[in-house]
Amino acid sequence: MPAQTTSLPTAAAPEAGPAPRTIRNFIGGAPVDGVAAFDKFDPVDGSRIAVVHEAGAEQVDRAVAAARAALDGPWGRMSVAERARILRRVADVIDHRAEELIAAEVGDTGKPEALARELDVARAAANFRSFADTVSAAGLDSYLTELPDGRSALNYAVRKPLGVVAVIVPWNLPLLLLTWKLAPALATGNTVVVKPSEETPSSATLLAEILVEAGVPVGVVNVVHGFGAGSAGEALTRHPGIDGVTFTGESSTGSAIMRAVAPRVRPVSFELGGKNAAVVFADADLDHAIAGLARSTYLNTGQVCLCTERIYVERSVFDDVAAGLAEQSRRLRLGRPEDPATTTGPLISQGHREKVRSYFELALEEGATLLAGGGIPTLGGELDGGAWIEPTLWTGLDNSHRTVREEIFGPAAALIPFDTEEEAIALANDTDYGLAAVTWTSDLARGHRVAQRMRVGMSWVNTWYLRDLRSPFGGVGLSGIGREGGHHSLEFYTEPTNVCVQL
Ligand SMILES: O=C(O)C(=O)/C=C/C=C/O
């Protein structure tokens, strides 16, 4: 069911289950009504769980003004040590209020509670602690300059906040990705206006309250809800008061944001789509590789930008890997988030399910052989109103097919055989994207060699989505611009001024 944009919410019509919550914008430390409202549906059963206030140009303008005022206030003059202390307190409050954040994330996405606990909310606290450390340890770029003519000088660069930053985040890992951007932005003294996805308004709104509770001055973080084009997202990226945009999401939206900021030549940091490859060599520990492939293909119902959608397997072990992975996909348990037996939740919405299902049809039209899944499951009861889809695998496709070239962003992958290392690398790099790759082999010299030749930002060997928050994270080609993580984030969120003093 598409989100309904209606006039401002009145008393909700009587309906089964608890009355929908109302979610407002958060500007200058206070809840603010929008110009319209849209419905948020539970992906588990299709029930309406919230009515969300859509920010119009006026609310976006107020949010940018609040952020600018905060930048010119105590926050802009605060020491690094004080900001790092506040970030650490944010992490502590996140830990303390973890159950509320888990409930918010699970309510909006339908993901298993264990996943929200172990990944989304755990990483939110870790992100704040990591950037409190990074900003505290950051030194200055400085040189003692000695010229041939005998003059000497001291060169040093001070880093100042970029300013008011637009933070636009997606619906797949809402809190993880919001805090991955918010932590370094705040660590470096910026103020922000956040536009969460219309599919996942809850955790961002709760986080805004947590930040104030932890001591972040009001106005430093503002949250406006709505859609992209023609809504809050476009109003925000076009706003003359925005000094930069950080965005994670679809590549086509990244292009639209670049066009929006182009007239004012504002910097962008983009982590975009992917069509990520895994390469399995015959000498790999196949049990380990198959388990790893199941995780990289199906984690978060395949709704992670790093998920594998292309699996290249050395021909001599192709049938073993195909059979093993098909068995792993059949073992997945689709079900309610609170059920400990559940491994896999629904897709985020009926609309997204239609997109993923259209690729299931396309794959068969392109000549695929279905190895597992391929349809809409019947789970019974209220769950049949949810956005459920079967974990799926295909063989019989190749790099010429759209199913193998276009991002599906669901629990589905194509298995394709190869014969030589050179061929495997060429197949993996034959894409317009370039985000992540995984190489499975017991020959570590080959692991390093192949991983380095992958045209991606992140190249894993014998593991997937193992993260060091200090390492560079991002992609090439349609997968994005810039890197996040450690000092890479500090470089985006600050502007250096180099001072040269003759001695
Ligand atoms: O793990 C991270 O730091 C991260 O940014 C993950 C991004 C996933 C996008 O879908």
Automatic annotation (TrEMBL):
EC code(s) of this entry: 1.2.1.85
GO molecular function: oxidoreductase activity
Catalytic-site annotation from UniProt: 271
Segments crossing the lipid bilayer: none
Domain Aldehyde dehydrogenase: 37-498
Pfam families attached to this UniProt entry: Aldedh (PF00171)
UniProt entry keywords in alphabetical sequence: NAD, Oxidoreductase
InterPro entries registered for this protein in UniProt: Ald_DH/histidinol_DH, Ald_DH_C, Ald_DH_CS_CYS, Ald_DH_CS_GLU, Ald_DH_N, Aldehyde_DH_dom, OHmuconic_semiald_DH
Family, as annotated: Belongs to the aldehyde dehydrogenase family.
PANTHER family the UniProt entry points to: 2-AMINOMUCONIC SEMIALDEHYDE DEHYDROGENASE
Name by which UniProt lists this protein: 2-hydroxymuconic semialdehyde dehydrogenase
Organism of derivation: Agromyces soli
